[in-house]
Write a structure and sequence with these properties.
Strand content: under 5%
Order of helices and strands: HHHH
Radius of gyration: 18 Å
Shape: elongated
Helix content: over 70%
Number of strands: 0
């Protein structure tokens, strides 16, 4: 019985590790976008409202990624949806950082 529990825990852990490794590029890109937002806040390029909107967009990407990983396998279609959302977020970060509005 003890061996069965250990084997089950091992399989579960292996599945979780596999699900995490399938989104390495997504994770790195998410980190880069978060850093870009933080730099925009620190430099004053982003207003409070813009920062809030960008943070909400990043939260949506994290939720989408979590939902894609929930079954232990990220499909091509799910990955395409995540990349599409990240592309849109990247465009929004660039647009909002360069729109000549500044934090007051």
């Amino acid at each position: 019985m003890k061996k069965l529990i250990i084997l089950g825990a091992f399989i579960l852990t292996a599945g979780l590790v596999n699900a995490q490794t399938q989104t390495k590029k997504v994770n790195q890109r998410q980190k880069n976008q978060t850093e870009r937002i933080a730099k925009g806040v620190n430099s004053g390029e982003l207003t409070k409202k813009e920062t809030k909107n960008l943070a909400n967009q990043q939260r949506d990407i994290r939720r989408t990624k979590r939902a894609a990983k929930s079954d232990g396998k990220v499909t091509r279609k799910e990955r395409a949806v995540i990349h599409s959302k990240q592309n849109a977020a990247s465009r929004n970060i660039k647009r909002k950082k360069n729109n000549d509005r500044s934090r007051k």
